[in-house]
Amino acid sequence: MTHRTTDVVENVLSKFQELMPENQQRQIQSREKSRSVEIEQSPLQQRVFGLHQGMGWMSDDFNDPLTDEFWLGET
């Protein structure tokens, strides 16, 4: 772990230890539940080319350079 990661972990553990025991248990149960949801997600489905054809559009000037007003925040 990096120094920054270690600081974050220590900070989280410190805050966790400040919780009352019943709240600690709730946090543990919540984390366990979220981990089980992550594991149970279905595998990625194969993408279908052209499925949403014609449902989007792109401006004719999409590739044109942006104006100075845009970059300088002027209106």
Give a structural overview.
Helices cover 55% and strands 0% of the residues. The radius of gyration is 24 Å and the shape is flat. It has three helices and no strands. It has helices spanning 3-18, 21-40, 68-72. The model has no long low-confidence stretch (mean pLDDT 82). With 75 residues, it is mainly alpha-helical.
Order of helices and strands: HHH
Radius of gyration: 24 Å
Counted by DSSP, the helix tally is: 3
Low-confidence stretches: none
Helix fraction bin:
40-55%
Average pLDDT over all residues = 82
Number of strands: 0
Report on the biggest sheet.
Answer: none
Please outline what is shown here.
By secondary structure, the protein is mainly alpha-helical. It is 55% helix and 0% strand.
Topology:
Elements: H1 3-18, H2 21-40, H3 68-72
Overview features:
75 residues; 55% helix; flat
